[in-house]
Amino acid sequence: MLRPFRFEGYSMLWPKVFFAFLLYTSAASAEERPEAVAPNPPLEAELQPKPETTTKAAENSATENSATENSTPENSTAENINTENSATDHAATANAATNNAATDHAETNNAAENINTENPAQERAEKEAGLLPEAKEVLPGQLLKEEEEVAPHPGEREEGQAAQGAEEAERKSLEKEPTLSTVVRGKSIPKSRGAGDFQVEVGPLAWVPRNSAAQLLTLAPGILLTNEGGALHAESIFLRGFDAREGQDIELWVGGFPINQAGNIHGNGYADLHFIIPELVDSIRVLEGPFDSRQGNFAVAGSAEYRLGLGQKGMTFKGSLGSHGLRRLLATWRPTSGDGQSFVGAQVYQTQGFGQNRDARSGSAMAQALFPVAEASSLRLFSFAYFGNYHSAGILREDEVQAGKKGFFDSYDVGQGGDSAQLGFLASLTGREGAFRHEQRMFFGFRNMRLRENFTGFVFDLQLPQQPLHGQRGDMLDKTSKSFMAGASGYGRMRTQLWELPLEWELGYFARVDRVSGQQTRLLAGTDIPYHVDKDLDSVLGDIGLYVDAELKPWHLLSLRASIRWELLAYSVTDNCFVKEVRRPSSTNPPLDESCLNQRDFGLYRERFQNLSTAGSIFIPKASALLGPFLDFSLMASYGRGFRSIDPEYIGQDLKTPFATLSSWEVGALYNRKGETATLEARAMLFGTHVDKDLVFSEQAGRNIVGGGTTRLGTVLSGRLQGRFFDLSANTTWVQSTFDETGLLVPYVPRFVGRLDGAVFGALPWELLGNTLLARFGLGINWVGRRPLPYGQRSNSIFVVDANTEWQWRNFSLGFAITNLFNRRYRLAEFNYVSNFQATQLSPPPLLPARHFIAGAPLAFWASLSINFGGDH
């Protein structure tokens, strides 16, 4: 939430000098101290709680405010100030005591781990500006923003926020608001790992219409989402030249809970985000590249972490009706006290879908609670449940649509679709003891998925010599995966000195075990009858990672960070269909149509299954350097290695290298300027990545499979401008992805991706029945350039505009959203390969590749009405 502030000059003070200055300066001189310019970008400024108490506020606020804040654990254990001495020196007056509290706030960058302050006046002012109060929770799996030195990069809060907090406190005191309240915080914001570390507060950009929480990822530069599987099928994610599919190359977290499903039959790392209720997402951290020591398996293109929080207090009901039979009902609740980290939300969704065979229905519930358990510790509990059922139109051949044999939104097979169920629970304990802080998490989850899709029609049901004569029976793939996952993760952080230079250490761990059962069969066309088993695997997968991370500041404008992570992956796989063919079958008892055979050469008997096990480890170094800020600029450089585990189906006994590895680098510059009425943040960066075993889409497998090495080189430009009544975000990404051996472009990966999101909001100049009428408008524009396809082809470009308006009066809100405003017929995904959706006879299928596509959604609209009980209006 952007607030007005004064921009009086450039002030970069070494924190120790600044803290000492606060301690030994009187309250009167504190009023005259110039405000510092915050070096952090506006995209991240709201991710942490604002410091609500300063020396200026101490002069105007009640004495009990200072007593409340000074009694908090973090104020009594500040790292860089001897609080006992300061308390002794300044115990004479309540003003001085409050000054110590303000010092602690500045030192700890708002003490984001343990303190959050609420301000009813501030919330009312935000509402009058057209904004709801916003929750300040934390990104999953991230470090809390602890008491850091001067941080010239995103994700770190310093003197500028202290100055902003001073102005906030001054305004509060002028409004004579009641005493501030404090609650124990459970998580916080990590330090930036480079120019590609985007910590994006959703804020007013939530009013840009999006159909799911997954689409919030597009607030970060270079991300394209496609979906060939239906309304509730997991989105395919393209990032920095990677076809990450449904999570195979991007690590995803929600509220600290890992989402990637190891060993999934549809793709190792499959991640379904449809259980996330969009209204419960407060911000997202997208780290493009493998530059954070906390990134583990699947962080090839990068990682994304959803931070949860509910801004609206009380009980809220929201109903939506729209085109294509859309129905949605949402209910949320959060207590009137607290900062939005405790909430409950549930939704039910249904649609008939556009065109043929695109109906879907789902239900989702999420709950989170934060409890103080000790003076400086808090316990956070998070759980969710989700169920979904949907159908999919699948793919169409371009030539048959052009010939009028099929409509643009038609389907070849109405049997395509899927089901999904997810349950998850997480407990997180955060604590602090002096200069040491820690977080420990435990989690477990159950996931069940079934997916039916056909990319080729009738091509791959080959006639084998020993089989009875048959025609093509169909290429419909029926995939099922059931898994149970349990694990733990955590870290401990300590601040010390090296040669009198600030040095910060962090030790962390990650442990996870998955029990996965997956099967892939082929179905007889037009029926649910399986006629062939492709895969049948039972797997136990283990992942243990340990890391050490260090930050050294040899100069107040320079931060050097380095880490090493050691990862061990273990596999225990039972292949229940290990023998699929025999080179010299029995002449008297041939296998015929059996999928899983129980004979060796010459018909000798053997069991159908095979047990396989292996393990492997890898060391992963990462490093980054951040220089600045100077004249509102910061320079950043990062290097890191990452890895992706291999599918269980590729495991062999004692296979020594169950990893795909990559190395990546980036250099960039950040510009951040804060003025009286607006804040501008802009970034420019250059990056490169090399992967030794990339993933490439296979139409026969209906998923990505392991291919050769690839190299990427690209650039990113992004910016966000925020003001009192507007929020604008724009970005563009260009990337060249090529195969190492041939130099050809990697297919299906977009080279250009551009995105513009904007919102304007505020109170209208008239009243309705004595109450202010608030208005909000959101606009989103997405442009994707032509993508390379196999056999030297290129896809069409994509240009889509979405718009939304919302009106609020008292506790009622009415919204109207339109997607694909100009009703453009665009192809969301395009392919080029051999298929045959017509012939089922013995004649051979065609051998020439043809263009195929997934139709993008046409113009759609929906209206939403919400009512709130018990909140502030």
Descriptive notes:
The chain has 873 residues and is mostly beta strands. The protein has 2 domains: 32-184, no CATH class; 197-869, Maltoporin, Chain A, CATH 2.40.170.20. It is 10% helix and 46% strand. It contains 11 helices and 39 strands. The strands form 7 sheets. It has a 22-stranded antiparallel beta barrel. It has a 5-stranded mixed beta sheet with strand order 3-9-10-7-8. Strands 4-5-6 form a 3-stranded antiparallel beta sheet, with no helix packed on it. A hairpin with a 2-residue loop joins strand 17 (417-433) and strand 18. Helix 1 packs antiparallel against helix 8 (94-107). The protein is globular. It starts with 14 loop residues before the first helix and ends with a strand. The model is unreliable at 1-187 (pLDDT under 50).
What can be said about this structure in brief?
The chain is mainly β and 873 residues long. It contains eleven helices and 39 strands. The strands form seven sheets. The chain has a 22-stranded antiparallel barrel. Strands 3-9-10-7-8 form a five-stranded mixed beta sheet.
